[in-house]
Amino acid sequence: MDRIIIRGGRRLEGRLPISGAKNAALTLMPCALLTDEPLVLRNLPRLADIDGFGHLLNQLGASTKIEGTRPEDFGRVMTIRAGRLTSTEAPYDIVRKMRASILVLGPTLAREGRARVSLPGGCAIGNRPIDLHLRALEAIGAELETEGGYVAARAPGGRLAGGRYRFPIVSVGATENVVMAAATARGTSVIENAAREPEIVDLCRCLIAMGARIEGVGTERLEIEGVDRLHGATYAVMPDRIEAGSYACAVAMTGGDLTLVGADADAMRATLGALAQAGVSVDEERDGVRIRSDGRLRPLELSTAPYPGFATDMQAQFMAMLCMAAGASVLEETIFENRYMHVPELARMGADIQVRGRTAVVRGVDRLLGAPVMATDLRASMSLILAGLVAEGETQVSRVYHLDRGYERLEEKLQAVGADIERVGDG
Ligand code: EPZ
After folding, report:
1. Is the CB of residue 34 less than 8 Å from the CB of residue 110?
2. Cis amide linkage into residue 308, ω under 30° from 0
3. From the CA of 173, how far away is ligand 1's center (Å)?
4. Based on the domain organization, do 244 and 226 belong to the same domain?
5. Is the beta carbon of 301 within 6 A of some atom in ligand 1?
6. How many domains does the structure of the chain reveal?
7. Structure pTM?
8. Do 378 and 413 share a domain, yes or no?
């Protein structure tokens, strides 16, 4: 397994390209299942999860073709064609490795009138149930039963009816599943308390480009008028707001002047607002977002919340950053029940963090010390990289496969703006 080695203390200066959004790509790819025509997705990031999702689509009978970019370019073009599905089953050995696989449930059910998807099981940050996905699909006409660790779904008469559903809590994935399934239902569907993340807006825009009829895009009430069929389209994935936010935290900690090329400030308001509150300067420019910092940071009080609130996917990165603030910060993780796996690893580097339930108190320290640390989940891994960028001495992060799921060519991007970072393979 590869490790990443960082020698801390370097300022970050220059321009850092932001890749297409992993969490948008993972809901745009299954849209291809809704039509027999090709869906061309541009600006796809080069990530393990994207490749994994491509294999899952292949398993269902869709072809996926990567083209049009040189290896050194960022952003791939993928043509997905689900001419005819040869399977309607997402097997356990794929789903257990990538929870987002559950996003083939809605589209496959809508396309074929039936689907069988393995229950995803939990992961490092929580038990991650899918009950809301199932309730929402039932509300638009699906008949579901769980047996043997799988969900078996069918649409009576081969086509979903449409219907109304109000989510009891906001769920990104469940909103995505029911929106995709409702697009070709017989009637109209109304989804209330829908997630409003920018990735959901990207999904709705892509579906509309394919011929779907959706009102209320970006709001918590979506009205989807089912159409008989969707056609192919070409759609560019939005820039990754979490990747951009992660690198903004990096320069906030190291000090420097970094332009996040291609970042969309409008999708990052809560993150950029928190950075400004910590004393970092944020400028929106024509080609991205420019972050400048002298490395001195003010403490913050932050609670994670569904969009447009402060993103849970930014919590671990901000915790690393606030380890260096002048004073005590308070973080509250309201979305997942176990998203503090990075705390013991940061503590090994000298961080002073107390966790009580969902609240973490982070007391700023003068310095962090490099150490061998272990990645546990995607965003926790990034918090360890960030700590390594400012720690004295050498930090070795192991199990970097977690990072490769969500950060395209991370060490290349950071080397290019001044970090002393390299990846070593264990052979
Ligand atoms: C998406 O996960 C993202 N993943 C996550 O990003 C992100 O942290 C999360 O949304 C919240 O923003 C992708 O988009 C692939 P949820 P998702 O359904 O859809 C509970 C990353 O680092 N819940 O909005 O799984 C759930 O347990 C990843 O890129 C139910 O109870 O998140 C959680 O407490 C990590 N029942 C809360 O809702 C359900 O049926 C929000 O989860 C579904 C969810």
Report:
1. yes
2. yes
3. 6
4. no
5. no
6. 2
7. 0.97
8. yes
